[in-house]
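Q: Please design a sequence for this.
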């Protein structure tokens, strides 16, 4: 069951409270807002199981959308006689019953390894059986362009290869694998696996590189020492003659809290964690069996065969800047992996309103994805949660907007000059699968598709603010966006990029001008708490009013919108090798700084006292003018460090102390 606001009330009373709230809200809503809220409530109910891939709820949602398209007057038979464009998607991997790994060494030595203790199967590998000699393959990197190749002069055909994660020379900012604040492409697990596969390896045994865990632990230890010293310094000032006791008591409180947090992070740190099954995603196509083994297991093999443990070999590679790949004489690996790829049928839902006149073969696509995260798992920002992620804003809100627009335009007595194709996409949360499927197999020519309009998360409008992505993809857009935003009394934040984390990207990749409407992220994003009672239905109605005007203006125009190539990708968050902070960007706020809409629960930002509405203007002594400045500034610090974060709150500067945590993902 999803987390509900009234779950502690008796069931009968809870039902009365919810019903009463719905009735009171419905009395204040326009007919359009009431219809959309009803759609959101239905699609985001537990009955629809979070509309996750592989759930019956997703199928029920598709059937509901098809029915509403039909009632709106759309043609729902354009795709082989019905509204459904069907295809199969991978629903991840499932671990089979048999996953074994035995290492046989010289003089009859046998290591019978235990699942989840000594090794773990990797979801991005393949099922298979192997019995082969073992090779130490360093980092499994083939990069002749920068003078490093672990495969050079080493035959791995039919061998089991031990590969360290990440890259050599991690501490060298000027080394061949340094890429500023990002992560080298050579470090990706799937890249390493692909290299081993292409060279004919029988299986891969990944192992954590010692440097990363060692460096993290050392950094955290240093931060504990600094926190202890900071506490001592404040305490000594407190007993000094003439001390400002109130000020120092506040400092002492901050120092104690910081020490508590950093000791907790240090104590929980695991330098050699086994990747959870599912980490790294699911393979596509052919592959080979793949495990992760612990450093302890790797050391036992390597010491026997080379006289060096993993850390010593890593150091030698760094010092020589040359690979140390080696056949581990006398060692063989016998094992079996059972990784089952689950394929499930899914479907886009398509409704069509034909145009009339000389432009009737030109098409405008209006879309919104209707899938969400089901019962959590991959994509959830509440790790380990099994509750239903109802996805009221993401994206029952956009789906409700799509249905409302279909109802309005489907009731017109006179058809528009151009064809309108309404598409409820599936698989967006898995990587824009539904929109990519449509653009690969379109019902109507993409060459004659003149525009695509997308709604994703339009249910949380605050202070009349709406973010519109793609405004630079056509000369036409700035004018029509301004015109119809003014009519709906909306404050628009324009983002020119066409590429971004939603379905409009698939169409922009086909050189089609796009607009994407979005009211912003929030603390319920990708969590079970994204429920219908937090939806701003009147705001949704105004957004649909605006989009209706844009669609009609585009359909009526004599000339199709021009296409403009805008480099770059709009994103909702920054990832990579930086400490965890936990802020949620506010893309709708124009501010001289980095505006945040909220903070993740129990995140460093939350514990430090930041909250939605704050505008971060400085980190330490570094000025912050926006998200990019914030991202780069944060990468200058280490997990466990306490930093000063200066924000504008209610027009006044306030400084908070935030203890950074280890990176996520």
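A: Design:
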């Amino acid at each position: 069951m999803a987390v509900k606001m009234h779950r502690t009330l008796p069931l009968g009373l809870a039902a009365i409270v919810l019903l009463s709230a719905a009735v009171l809200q419905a009395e204040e809503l326009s007919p359009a807002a009431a219809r959309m809220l009803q759609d959101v409530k239905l699609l985001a109910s537990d009955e629809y199981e979070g509309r996750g891939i592989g759930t019956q709820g997703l199928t029920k949602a598709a059937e509901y959308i098809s029915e509403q398209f039909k009632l709106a007057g759309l043609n729902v038979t354009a795709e082989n006689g019905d509204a459904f464009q069907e295809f199969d998607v991978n629903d991840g991997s499932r671990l089979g019953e048999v996953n074994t790994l035995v290492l046989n060494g010289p003089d009859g030595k046998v290591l019978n390894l235990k699942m989840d203790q000594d090794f773990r199967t990797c979801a991005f590998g393949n099922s298979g059986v192997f019995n082969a000699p073992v090779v130490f393959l360093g980092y499994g990197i083939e990069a002749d362009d920068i003078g490093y190749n672990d495969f050079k002069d080493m035959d791995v055909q039919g061998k089991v290869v031990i590969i360290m994660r990440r890259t050599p020379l991690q501490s060298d900012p000027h080394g061949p694998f340094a890429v500023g604040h990002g992560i080298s492409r050579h470090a990706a697990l799937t890249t390493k696996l692909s290299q081993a596969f292409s060279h004919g390896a029988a299986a891969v045994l990944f192992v954590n590189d010692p440097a990363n865990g060692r460096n993290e632990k050392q950094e955290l230890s240093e931060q504990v020492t600094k926190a202890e010293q900071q506490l001592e310094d404040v305490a000594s000032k407190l007993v000094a003659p003439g001390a400002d006791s109130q000020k120092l008591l506040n400092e002492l409180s901050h120092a104690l809290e910081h020490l508590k947090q950093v000791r907790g992070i240090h104590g929980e740190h695991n330098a050699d964690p086994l990747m959870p099954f599912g980490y790294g995603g699911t393979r596509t196509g052919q592959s080979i069996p793949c495990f992760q083994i612990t450093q302890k297991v790797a050391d036992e093999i390597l010491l026997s065969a080379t006289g060096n443990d993993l850390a010593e070999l890593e150091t030698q590679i760094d010092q020589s800047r040359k690979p140390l790949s080696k056949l581990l004489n006398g060692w063989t690996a016998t094992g079996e992996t059972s990784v089952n790829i689950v394929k499930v049928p899914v479907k886009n839902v398509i409704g069509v309103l034909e145009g009339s006149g000389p432009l009737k073969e030109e098409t405008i696509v209006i879309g919104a994805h209707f899938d969400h995260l089901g019962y959590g798992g991959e994509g959830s920002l509440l790790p380990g949660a099994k509750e239903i992620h109802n996805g009221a804003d993401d994206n029952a809100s956009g789906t409700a907007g799509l249905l409302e627009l279909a109802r309005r335009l489907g009731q017109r007595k006179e058809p528009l000059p151009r064809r309108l194709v309404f598409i409820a996409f599936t698989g967006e949360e898995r990587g824009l699968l539904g929109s990519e499927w449509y653009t690969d197999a379109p019902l109507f020519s993409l060459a004659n598709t003149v525009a695509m309009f997308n709604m994703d998360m339009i249910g949380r409008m605050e202070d009349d603010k709406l973010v519109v992505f793609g405004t630079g993809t056509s000369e036409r857009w700035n004018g029509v966006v301004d015109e119809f935003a003014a009519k709906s009394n909306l404050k628009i934040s324009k983002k020119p990029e066409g590429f971004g984390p939603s379905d409009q990207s698939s169409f922009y990749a086909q050189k089609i001008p796009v607009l994407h409407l979005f009211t912003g992220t929030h603390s319920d994003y990708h969590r079970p708490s994204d429920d219908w009672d937090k939806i701003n239905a009147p705001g949704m109605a105004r957004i649909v009013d605006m989009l209706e005007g844009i669609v009609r203006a585009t359909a009526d125009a004599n000339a199709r919108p021009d296409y403009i190539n805008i480099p770059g990708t709009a994103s909702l968050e920054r990832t990579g090798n930086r400490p965890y902070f936990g802020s949620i960007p506010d893309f709708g706020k124009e501010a001289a700084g980095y505006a945040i809409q909220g903070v993740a629960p129990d995140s460093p930002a939350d514990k430090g006292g930041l909250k939605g509405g704050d505008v971060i203007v400085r980190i330490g002594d570094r000025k912050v003018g926006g998200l990019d400045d914030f991202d780069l500034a944060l990468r200058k610090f280490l997990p466990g460090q306490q930093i000063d974060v200066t924000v504008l709150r209610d027009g006044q500067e306030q400084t908070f102390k935030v203890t950074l945590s280890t990176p996520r993902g």
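Q: Thanks. Anything notable?
A: The chain has four domains: 28-92+342-556, 100-208+272-337, 213-268, 583-659. The longest strand covers residues 339-353.
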